[in-house]
User: Fold these one by one.
Assistant:
Number 1:
Amino acid sequence: MPSAENNMDASTYRVVIDCPDQVGLVAAVSQFFASVNASILEASHHTDVKLARFFMRHEIAANSLKLNHTDFKQAFAQLAQKYDMRWSLNSSRSKPKVALLVSKEEHCLNDVLHRWHTGELNCDIPCIIGNHKSMQKYADWYEIPFHYIDFSNKTEAFAHIEALIRDYKVDLTVLARFMQIIPDDVCQRLSGKIINIHHSFLPSFVGAKPYQQAYDRGVKLIGATCHYVTSVLDEGPIIEQEVMRISHSDSSDDMVRKGKRCEINALANGLRYHIEDRVIVFESKTIVFN
Amino acid sequence: MPSAENNMDASTYRVVIDCPDQVGLVAAVSQFFASVNASILEASHHTDVKLARFFMRHEIAANSLKLNHTDFKQAFAQLAQKYDMRWSLNSSRSKPKVALLVSKEEHCLNDVLHRWHTGELNCDIPCIIGNHKSMQKYADWYEIPFHYIDFSNKTEAFAHIEALIRDYKVDLTVLARFMQIIPDDVCQRLSGKIINIHHSFLPSFVGAKPYQQAYDRGVKLIGATCHYVTSVLDEGPIIEQEVMRISHSDSSDDMVRKGKRCEINALANGLRYHIEDRVIVFESKTIVFN
Amino acid sequence: MPSAENNMDASTYRVVIDCPDQVGLVAAVSQFFASVNASILEASHHTDVKLARFFMRHEIAANSLKLNHTDFKQAFAQLAQKYDMRWSLNSSRSKPKVALLVSKEEHCLNDVLHRWHTGELNCDIPCIIGNHKSMQKYADWYEIPFHYIDFSNKTEAFAHIEALIRDYKVDLTVLARFMQIIPDDVCQRLSGKIINIHHSFLPSFVGAKPYQQAYDRGVKLIGATCHYVTSVLDEGPIIEQEVMRISHSDSSDDMVRKGKRCEINALANGLRYHIEDRVIVFESKTIVFN
Amino acid sequence: MPSAENNMDASTYRVVIDCPDQVGLVAAVSQFFASVNASILEASHHTDVKLARFFMRHEIAANSLKLNHTDFKQAFAQLAQKYDMRWSLNSSRSKPKVALLVSKEEHCLNDVLHRWHTGELNCDIPCIIGNHKSMQKYADWYEIPFHYIDFSNKTEAFAHIEALIRDYKVDLTVLARFMQIIPDDVCQRLSGKIINIHHSFLPSFVGAKPYQQAYDRGVKLIGATCHYVTSVLDEGPIIEQEVMRISHSDSSDDMVRKGKRCEINALANGLRYHIEDRVIVFESKTIVFN
């Protein structure tokens, strides 16, 4: 419970990299950090021996640095090039813009908005987009623009959504129980920038009515999965999963209630990990430094 | 996932008893139920062999009965007397009136209101009472009267609260992170009708700042406890507990975030169990038919 | 912590039924119990409203009864017939005979034997059957006959196994990580009397190398499933499941270690539930009164 | 599931340090590693901002180094001195010698021995010490010397135990349900080298009969705690904790059964963390890099 974490004006830089593994890599990175006087608050490493690939995330106290954000980034870019890194360097001050897409189910929407409102999610929410007007009330209460999309024409509907995403300069689109299948081309354009909460413990029960499928199979736990959206339905890289125990005595209502709890928790964690630059997608999987 | 549970107009009666154990007790009760044509949807029994005491809860389809609520109750009263039962017989149609008491923390308030709003909690919420005006906004959105209580004079404040409880005919008072110690006499008058959410895994870390206590002791899980309030602080019968794993890398913010999750879940379950007549308090403990 | 449960000479009868649901059923059963002076220690009910089917398990103190086992059974049979029940009535004194089938993995074998040895599993273990001689040492230490089966001819091998099951009058066959697919006809002959521990959270990762499959998919929890064996591989009714959280930092060894823990716990519970007559199989699923 | 982890002949060095935090520390350490060509398989950092203290663990492929163990250690010692480090540098080839102390309960003993036997615990077990002769059988089966200690004279008994610890050059003493309170002077002499498994979720239910205490308080989860032993009973730094859900329907036997599962898992993890140099004790708490 270190008190410094409570100091809200202490912004940080988050440096996230992955690159081919080699001896001296950590030394080079940490020497660079030392050379700019970086005070490291959190450091996470992972070596995938089989892939010979290295993954790393640092969180650095911004006020410890001798350089500003731009100069820091420029200096790091040289190092990154030398080691063939994929990398990002974000300030905790630049909040990502997160758009929420919803249908009729309101539990995920309510939870995400509440966490955002109380400061747990370090993002902006420029808009809520829905195919049911009933969600307007949440948008109003939290004073966020709400856009109703008519899905009688699917192509137009998704064109409308993509236009909104462009106009609001959205960094991440969250399908917070948005019960529409995203077209391939949209998936590809938003690749790595769109996450979904699926109401099953994937890869079990892909597709529609996962609770019914779970009931029919007689599983003893149900779950939910937060994952990046790809063209193949429910096959994207998994960020977070949650499960809860059920039994024969759980009614349909009980299963839905428990399932909602899983969805809320998996989405809340998955979303936070993404926002805090804790997720690296590599091929079909994620490294999550949580 | 039986479909009948989804049939929202199908009200039920909940018959809850406890009494000295004896052979023939279950037969007598179930024969009575058969004699009035009761279709039993859910039945739970518990025998405490040491105490020679029997605990039982039945949920009965109201539309299966030959009698109305009043006649059913009257008929059951005779049986109850014969076996020296403590008992209750409630219809799922008569929703208990639940008052929420809050201070500044809004996560439990938001969660309870959301579950109530979406029909998960089968109760009415006639009023929200708070010692901080900032909670008014939740009350407004959900269109529930909010009463601000000034605590500069504690005695008057609690007199005011008790008057509100009386006026609103409140059945259950919930301390949804209400950071005031309830006076002995109020505890006694509300005995069995007031529940609290304490932000530790009791009996560890009684009293103030449980997260700091947990941090100082270096425990590897933190938790929350939903319990009935008695005169002895944090000593009342426990209804529900939740825990989450923590580690040295959890900051103060992380612990609070995880702790809130525990509080929300323990309170949501504990409150639902009480509302659905699933809790029997016997001496210092609870039987929970969940 | 009722002391009576500790009284090891207090044997019980376990009456398990399922039948079409109807009003008066519970009354009829409990009146019968009262008429023979049965002291009910544990009672569990379940109504499947959709199927209109009723499931029930009672545990009765044997020494409270006016009748002996045979007479009790005979008397109950009349009631059972009237209500078209599938039923069993077993004494806790007649321990089922459980045969263990193993390959090379020893963790499940060690755990089951230890629990049996310390009295947690109320069964006899007349034999251990294996296709690797290395498991002999466990059999020796626990003084249980070990039968090595040569699998160079599969048909003969299974004929040998079935002969052993017959000769030892085995009630339940446990595949404690027995890495051979059971032929259809054997599955059918042992229907309801053979359980398996599969090292994944079914229905995910059916078949071989489930940990590799889980690794490839990038799931965030792995699990194990204890289920009845049917002709369709890994499709039988599920008794118990366990899961554990994993992350990118878990090596192959870590996943195996965590997986073993899941397997041990799921098998231990599933086996105990079966032995204590806590499982009712209905169609493709189980009701587990635990 | 990187294949290299499966390569059993690939030994590693584990470098564990803690020291006052300062900018450049990580750079200095990682530059040193690079200078000796160290291939880092696993790296874990923790900064305690409040204490301004830094904690770090590295696991290095031994065969990547230009130096042997002795030279590596000597070279590192200079760096360590410069930064005022507490440190250790162990090879995975030098297995610590772990002595097991037991009374009558055999579940922890059985589990630790099984994990050791199957290679999960990378240690030697030179002796088992017990105050009940019945544990001899485990020692015999695993071919480990067993020493029975007569506790009619406590002082002599502990002198005997300490002599055995000395003679066997024991690195870690494990109280695997050893139901004797360790004298203060022994605690001090073995400080940091003796761990206990306590059968409650500490700090709840210190001392004797924790399950009875848990039963009396009516908690909804029970647990177990693996901790270093200090002079104050059950107050030492916690390494690992486990919990399981219980309810009113759990008998004494059920609680003991579930509690054993917690004990086994907490001890197995805690012991492994210690053996693999994953635990740093600082003041009254632990940092566990797991």
Number 2:
Amino acid sequence: MNDSRQELWDRRMDLPLGTASAVYLAAYAVHVLAPGLPHAWHTVLLAAMAAAWAVFLVDYTVRYRLSGLGPWRFLRTHWLDTVVLVLPLLRPLRIFSVYDRIQRRRGRPRLSLHARVMAYAGLTVTLLGFAGSLTVYHHEHTAPGASILTFGDAVWWACATLATVGYGDVSPITPIGRLTAVGLMACGLALLGAVTGSFSSWLIQLFTRDEDKRPPGDSPGAS
Amino acid sequence: MNDSRQELWDRRMDLPLGTASAVYLAAYAVHVLAPGLPHAWHTVLLAAMAAAWAVFLVDYTVRYRLSGLGPWRFLRTHWLDTVVLVLPLLRPLRIFSVYDRIQRRRGRPRLSLHARVMAYAGLTVTLLGFAGSLTVYHHEHTAPGASILTFGDAVWWACATLATVGYGDVSPITPIGRLTAVGLMACGLALLGAVTGSFSSWLIQLFTRDEDKRPPGDSPGAS
Amino acid sequence: MNDSRQELWDRRMDLPLGTASAVYLAAYAVHVLAPGLPHAWHTVLLAAMAAAWAVFLVDYTVRYRLSGLGPWRFLRTHWLDTVVLVLPLLRPLRIFSVYDRIQRRRGRPRLSLHARVMAYAGLTVTLLGFAGSLTVYHHEHTAPGASILTFGDAVWWACATLATVGYGDVSPITPIGRLTAVGLMACGLALLGAVTGSFSSWLIQLFTRDEDKRPPGDSPGAS
Amino acid sequence: MNDSRQELWDRRMDLPLGTASAVYLAAYAVHVLAPGLPHAWHTVLLAAMAAAWAVFLVDYTVRYRLSGLGPWRFLRTHWLDTVVLVLPLLRPLRIFSVYDRIQRRRGRPRLSLHARVMAYAGLTVTLLGFAGSLTVYHHEHTAPGASILTFGDAVWWACATLATVGYGDVSPITPIGRLTAVGLMACGLALLGAVTGSFSSWLIQLFTRDEDKRPPGDSPGAS
């Protein structure tokens, strides 16, 4: 019974959560990238961000009540929800879990598993790279001695970090900027793992099919 | 029927497309690396590049007509062709799809799957690295404050980027240079995935064969 | 019989070894990060580190006696113990082998294999990154011309190294600092391998299950 | 018959080739690292290097004659021998193929496949890293504006390159130094592939065994 009520809640919250994610990211982006707007506008943007956060808080609380679990167990089983609640940067990630749930409800997804893994990895990396660039630009461009001075610099730095290239021509120097950087590095490692793992499993699949088609005793490496 | 006409077109365009790719890259290389040539020569080179582009445009249009698909569906199913059409940098990639088609028509390729994956990865990386070095050198060496001043610097930078090493002793500072760099980083990630995936699947193949040969109950890790 | 006495020793030493590991790391951290403490305190901290080392030495000697092996063979089969004895930096690693042994004795571990691999990789990297940052900070911050001047710099540098990003805005210049760095780089490579390998095997598992569920002849790539 | 004569030659050349490899590397190392030796010593060292090269040349010629192949086919099937002949840097690699052949002749090797892959990767990387450091130090430390001034710097740079970290605090600036660097980067990529591939295949092996032991219907991810 709990399950069905949770499912009902999930279904009802899909649109609000997706909208809240998009609103949060858009409001933060405008707030950071257009400091020249009149003060009233910035107040509106901050209010929009607070409202988006409230939607997540309400959703989290209701989900906790519906689960019927103790607080620690809930924290453990819903750690992604918790992290998303605490770190506004990661909120856009919710768009995917919402999208995924909608897709699954409509029946089997069209894309193959490989394509889905690559699409999710690509989109996650794009969203988190954008959010990370915003945060780093926000905290760095006014710091004394900073090398990240424009939003372009921040995006360039985020790309070099996510690809684990790390030129070091521009790099964050403030504590918050560096914390964000560590988060992006972890994303970069995960991205590398996703790319490599997909490639690896795709090759293994090819080989397995290749071997099934051949007569036994014909070794594939000797061809 | 559409299929057979498409195949006929593919077969007919193999040589023109391969030639156009090679001409484009060669003309661009001479244009960028030999600025001291008389003006008339540079006009000829730009004309050659435009002609190569025209061949791709004509091929793309005919392919679209022959497919009988709507524009969006065609974009989705032929995204590589589209990307190659828009970004001249990637045009040399067509050489491989042409080569692949010729090989397949002549019967089963000689190389094993691993060797083919490594050969394609190596050649793609070489071609894109060369094209990327040219573009970055073209746009950087005259920019104020640039660190990439010679074509040698550009090649050195491209190698460090493709291996995801990224020393940062030289790095692009212009928007176009950095965009090219992001493309090369993506290639570097894919290269890493190809190398790692090949190695991984090769080891797994070895283990599988190793286990098949042993009597059951003899665990391979304990030897 | 030797086996049972070894097991008994292992069981008895779990708590002392774990405590000694934690004491060593804590004492070293306070010693390095709080140089302003009165001299007597530092003497206590160094004594605690020596005591922790003595526990490891005693354990190693007893283990050697109980094994009944020659010295070279023991070195070879217990190389991790030997490395941990010689390099104080790696001592915290013992916490895991202790934890692992306790878990195994209590029956089957709760976590799945993937979760365990990721948890071990994450914790090992955190502990070694912390110990590496301490060592590098200890030897670098007073060296002339050093770029790692605060503990925050050292942690930032360790993160960039473990992710194989390597900005190079701060980097060690003393021989001991660089040796530690090489150790952290090896950890970074292993971490990359763990992340990628987990992802890869997880994907392969998904595919295998996916194929088992489908009717034969339905290729998964063509969907 | 050719095969048996080739085998005989291989067996006879094991010791001379291994010795020549070691002599070459040692002579080069002393030549580069001890420039203060009297001139006569350096003449002896260069003679030793020339003699080692002569051994490789003779071996290559005899192997070509015994193979009975045309020059191009021989080049293709013995490309590693050819590369080793042309690039003195890579000569130490021959030690492994010699070691491998000796091991195989004595019967089944003791180490498991994983251990062998890791041992070969580790030893290859160590040897090539040492040879690369020597070459880079040799050509860089007298170049104007160089940042690699001591052999320690060269080793530090080689480690950062092989781990694909690439701080960029020291980096080669001469053409030969950069060519060597590109070779080391390729080694770094291969090392990454070996580490990741081993880890990946090891995990997959563990999972396969894990699944075989469980009753069917018990999914491993849900435990």
